[in-house]
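Support case: adenine complex. Customer-provided input:
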Amino acid sequence: MAGVVSSVFRPGLFAGKSAIVTGGGTGIGKAITQELLYLGCNVMVAARKLDRLEAAADEMRSQLKDEKVRLEVAECNIRKEDQVKNLIKTTVDKFGSLDYLVNNAGGQFMNTAGEFSLKGWNAVVETNLTGTFLCCREAHNQWMSKNGGVIVNIIANMFNGWPGMSHSGAARAGVDNLTKSLSVEWAPAGIRINSVAPGSTIFSDTAAQNYGSDTIFKAQIPRVPAKRLGTTEEVSAAVCFLLSPAAAFISGETVRVDGAQSLYSTSIVWEVPDHDKIPPYTWKDDKDGKSKL
Ligand code: ADE
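Agent response - structure generated as follows:
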């Protein structure tokens, strides 16, 4: 059964607007799509596989209160330049505009850096960094450079590094920096661009399925100052705020939605075992040759 959709923002806030949400059929992306639709925005949801996306789209269409609001789906691997070009073109053709782009699609697998194959590293960087860049560039070149627009990039809590996910941490930090550069380059075109960094405690059924259980989420609660998991709705609210005119003077910014997790701990429970492999450097005492520490 389709669940309830609501928003803290006023109904009709995005009436007549159009958006692309990549990875918009599951988890955080789905919540963003549902809230945008609720607020009157036409949404094109893009994902790599159409079959799962169609089922999610049917559910989201059944929640629509206003029959003028449209939800369309597109198959798009954001790593493929021709598919990204086609996604932007199809959206502009169908909706007549592209006001908002939400780069939510991404993914990674956990491993230590010494174990990464080049193929695995490249796949994560191509999806999370290059794919996001391609979507930004095509949105800019095909529509926003002439008409303005707003972009939100979904990144992650990688601000103190991301042990166990170093490929994704590097790629997301790259998107964080790309956001800053583009906010300056594209301001004269009337484009605002910001990032939202959800903590790793944002709980969704999709994320729990990906990791095989909810244990990995619950284990983090003691390490989050808010002492609870976060919701996909809490991320979506930040995205809708940044897309809205309430954020008209905000660009190049990164908003963390993590209950202060990133100021307190990393996104993975990562213990460093006791060891003595990093000996101190001191001026040795000439008499006994011993270190002071
Ligand atoms: N979600 C995860 N990887 C993706 C990709 N390459 N394209 C679109 N959506 C994705």
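The radius of gyration is 21 Å.

Case will auto-close in a few days if no follow-up is received.
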